């Protein structure tokens, strides 16, 4: 009776014959680690909104009751990633402080790497939460994963201003997506609040030279249109940047048309739809000025 060999065993034998050498040994630890990473990503991607909200609110309640240690790491990750979206954390600085404190206090490399990813999703320059996470990451940079350390080194992430200066200088305005990917800023980070800050800076920079060359502005606005809208309220910064400077003098018809089309698609017609408020806009003076510019353009037929 012939010896029975499994399909996997026969494949190994055949591959060995083809390659002329024994197959490399597979590290089960690495396979398990890769499977765990994939499972975490799949879990986050598939969590229904209602379930996610319930888990985040449960985490906030435990933090309030002094039971932060009872929060599973997966729920802590969810809360950190959506800290700027969920009302339980938006409402009070204390709730955000508790959340970040709990994450920082967790031992091991996993919480540090979660904080690194959460940094981009919850980014708000100058905020206590962003600065606390940033300083903690700086002190524990050696615990970051290899690709995260490579990104930090490439953009001088820990040299001040969160690496934004180096990233902005590296962006090729002909293809911003690809140039950001080259420095290690993947699609998810480009659609994060960190990516929002980059886009706002780039829009401001291109507007300074828009009368000479309008194409970079069109490219960046097209890139923004394709991105995922995670925080429409914070994206009000776009209309402030694009309209406020034209309160007294309009740009060329081509630029006016480009900006008007983008803002209509992003926020709707301000004559019939309420646009989001601007942050730190006491008395809504800046918002009112921006709306007057947009309405003036639309009334004058800017889209023609």
The rounded Rg comes to 24 Å
Tally of separate helices:
17
Uncertain ranges: none
Structural class: mainly alpha
The end-to-end distance, rounded to whole angstroms, is: 84 Å
Strand content: under 5%
* Order of helical and strand elements: HHHHHHHHHHHHHHHHH
Question: What helical percentage do the residues reach?
Answer: 55-70%
Kindly state the number of beta strands.
Answer: 0
Strand count, sense and closure of the main sheet? none
Oligomer: single chain
Q: What is the mean pLDDT?
A: 86
Shape: globular
Word description of this protein:
This protein has 304 residues and is mostly helical. Among the domains are: 42-144; 232-304, no CATH class. The chain is 63% helix and 0% strand. The chain contains 17 helices and no strands. It has helices at residues 7-19, 28-46, 49-64, 73-81, 87-90, 93-105, 109-121, 128-139, 146-154, 164-170, 176-182, 187-190, 193-207, 215-226, 236-243, 253-267, 285-299. α13 (193-207) runs antiparallel to α14. The longest helix is centred in the N-terminal third of the chain and has 19 residues, at 28-46. The model has no long low-confidence stretch (mean pLDDT 86).
């Amino acid at each position: 009776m012939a010896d029975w060999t499994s399909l996997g065993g026969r494949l190994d034998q055949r591959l060995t014959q083809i390659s002329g050498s024994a197959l490399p040994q597979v590290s089960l630890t690495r396979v398990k680690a890769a499977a765990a990473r994939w499972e975490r990503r799949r879990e986050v991607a598939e969590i229904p909104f209602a379930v996610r909200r319930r888990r985040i609110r449960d985490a906030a309640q435990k933090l309030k009751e002094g039971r932060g240690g009872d929060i599973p790491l997966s729920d802590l990750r969810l809360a950190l990633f959506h800290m700027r979206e969920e009302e339980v954390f938006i409402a009070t600085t204390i709730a955000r402080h508790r959340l970040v404190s709990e994450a920082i206090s967790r031992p091991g490399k996993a919480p540090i790497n979660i904080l690194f990813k959460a940094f981009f999703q919850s980014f708000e320059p100058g905020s206590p939460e962003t600065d606390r996470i940033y300083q903690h990451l700086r002190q524990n940079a050696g615990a970051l994963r290899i690709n995260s350390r490579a990104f930090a080194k490439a953009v001088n992430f820990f040299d001040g201003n969160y690496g934004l200066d180096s990233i902005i200088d590296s962006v090729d305005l002909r293809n911003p997506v690809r140039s950001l990917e080259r420095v290690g800023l993947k699609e998810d980070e480009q659609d994060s609040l960190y990516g929002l800050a980059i886009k706002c800076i780039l829009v401001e920079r291109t507007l300074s030279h828009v009368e000479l060359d309008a194409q970079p502005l069109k490219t960046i606005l097209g890139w923004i249109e394709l991105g995922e809208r995670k925080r429409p309220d914070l994206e009000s910064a776009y209309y402030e940047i694009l309209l406020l400077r034209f309160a007294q003098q309009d740009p060329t018809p081509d630029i006016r048309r480009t900006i008007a089309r983008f803002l209509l698609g992003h926020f709707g017609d301000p004559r019939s739809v309420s646009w989001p408020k601007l942050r730190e806009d006491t008395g809504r003076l800046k918002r009112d000025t921006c709306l007057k510019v947009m309405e003036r353009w639309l009334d004058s037929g800017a889209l023609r």
